[in-house]
């Protein structure tokens, strides 16, 4: 990781600190943004500062809960503390549109809305129509 930080990676937006350790675990304080290397970097796909973009790396299983709460997600293997598990994927919409859709979803008994309120409460991710296994975590 130190070698990568020395010459080819770009943690500049993170004040020259990588968010991950050498095993891909988050090492910065919760609530801080994470900046990963990307197509504008000189580093390659094997760069240790590309964790989220490599996608889900754990065996996960969607299951029907036994207590009537619907669907859930469980892991089929041990997940180390501070490890990336999955990205919440969906359509980015305005908070106003989220309010409108939320009323519809409430009548249907399901919602897949996740507010993006890091700086301002302006956008929401809606995983109802576009998403991955992560919407079962939020929903359940």
UniProtKB/TrEMBL annotation:
Lineage start: Eukaryota, Metazoa, Chordata, Craniata, Vertebrata
Keyword field contains Hydrolase: no
List of residues binding Zn(2+) 2: 10, 37, 41
Subcellular location as annotated: Chromosome; Nucleus
InterPro entries the UniProt entry points to: H3-K9_MeTrfase_SUV39H1/2-like, H3K9_Histone-Lys_N-MTase, Pre-SET_dom, SET_dom, SET_dom_sf
Annotated Zn(2+) 1 binding sites: 9
Domain Pre-SET: 6-55
Alphabetic keyword roster: Chromatin regulator, Chromosome, Metal-binding, Methyltransferase, Nucleus, S-adenosyl-L-methionine, Transcription, Transcription regulation, Transferase, Zinc
Protein name listed in UniProt: SUV91 methyltransferase
Gene3D superfamilies reported for this sequence: SET domain (2.170.270.10)
Matching PROSITE patterns: PRE_SET (PS50867), SET (PS50280)
Gene Ontology CC entries for this record: chromosome; nucleus
Segments forming domain SET: 58-140
UniProt: Zn(2+) 3 binding residues: 37, 43, 47
């Amino acid at each position: 990781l130190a070698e990568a930080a020395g010459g080819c990676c770009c943690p500049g937006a993170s004040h020259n600190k990588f968010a991950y350790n050498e095993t891909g675990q988050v090492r910065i304080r919760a609530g801080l943004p994470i900046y990963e290397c990307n197509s504008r970097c000189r580093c390659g796909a094997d760069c240790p500062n590309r964790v989220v973009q490599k996608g889900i790396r754990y065996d996960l299983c969607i299951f029907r809960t036994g207590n009537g709460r619907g669907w859930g997600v469980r892991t089929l293997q041990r997940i180390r503390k501070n490890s990336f598990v999955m990205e919440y994927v969906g359509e980015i919409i305005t908070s106003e549109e989220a309010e409108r859709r939320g009323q519809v979803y409430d009548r249907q008994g399901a919602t897949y809305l996740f507010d993006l309120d890091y700086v301002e409460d302006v956008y929401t991710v809606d995983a109802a129509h576009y998403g991955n296994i992560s919407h079962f975590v939020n929903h359940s």
